[in-house]
Amino acid sequence: xxxxxxRISGEQLAFMVGAQLMGNVLLIDPASxxxxxxxxxxxxxxxxxxxxxxxxxxxxGKFPGISPTDYAVILxxxxxxxxxxxxxFVLFMLSAMVSFNDFLAFTNLxxxxxxxxxxxxxxxxxxxxxxxxxxxxxxxxxVFIIVFSILSFVLSTVLALKDMDFMLLLPLATDRPQxxxxxxxxxxxxxxxxxxxxxxxxxLVNNPKExxxxxxxxxxxxxxxxxxxxxxxxxxxxxxxxxxxxPAISFARxxxxxxxxxxxxxxxxxxxxxxxxxxxxxxxxASVLCIAQMFNxxxxxxxxxxxxxxxxxxxxxxxxxxxxxxWAARHFIRYFLFIMGFVLPVIGVIRSFFVKEKQGPxxxxxxxxxxx
Length: 372
Prior knowledge:
73% of the residues lie in helices and 0% in strands. By secondary structure, the chain is mainly α. Helix 1 (10-27) packs parallel to helix 8 (208-237) and helix 3 (68-76) packs across helix 4. It is globular, with a radius of gyration of 21 Å.
């Protein structure tokens, strides 16, 4: 059952997908662990995202207008179906907490004397207000944020062109193959496998055909930004990009156009905070949709206050250690993301053909009885 009554357009879905892919990747580039071959990792991840787009469109196309909570039960049965939905809930909450903590650590660097709990509560209140206002408000805000982010990205890239050395992209070989493959598998899981999030938003698009186009356009937009972000970082830092905690900020600080003209890193910081807000909000929104649809609640708003308490309690306990979270993402979280974002949807698409065949005769019998 679709709890959310608000609807969005295909274009708004595309902007949401693009913003989600840009989220943590612009802040902490996981492809940077591959050194000067990070752009190859990002390009491969983009191709993988296009394959995921086809899978998700195929799966949602089998059940138009039906929420994943409902067709998971159809595909996997009552018990396994609910287990799959609960697993997605855990995935969304985990992704939201990690995203929230990443941007909390980033904000704390700029305001080190501000108590951590104050930053957490302020950020959580803004996110919860967005959840209360609903999907339409989030989608409209995302359009503004993604336009601002693209303009900021293009501006900083153009200003840094004179300092870029494209020879740093070569050679197409590495003496650290293990780190290259680790970076590739990390990017496949984080951020691209997290696109499974949008299985919950596709049924909320006005036109199913526009939903498919919107998902594809969003993947192309987000993957392109991720690719060019890796490309420009390598052209500035070379293999040294692996030592940058926040490559986007380091890239902006490398731009020198006069202290009295503008501070490019300020615009970049605003962009990262805006994108982080969208990323965290979408994951938490999908989390409340999972629970609300599973328990047939009339509205997701009844879950916002309990979610606020959970977010504040968990994030206040998490360490502000980006290196630790990055290590966990590379060694553990990526496997969970791959299973939830790739393996289960592929099994769902395969199962959908057999389910349709089983339901076909029943539907035919019902239609025959109706005629009689």
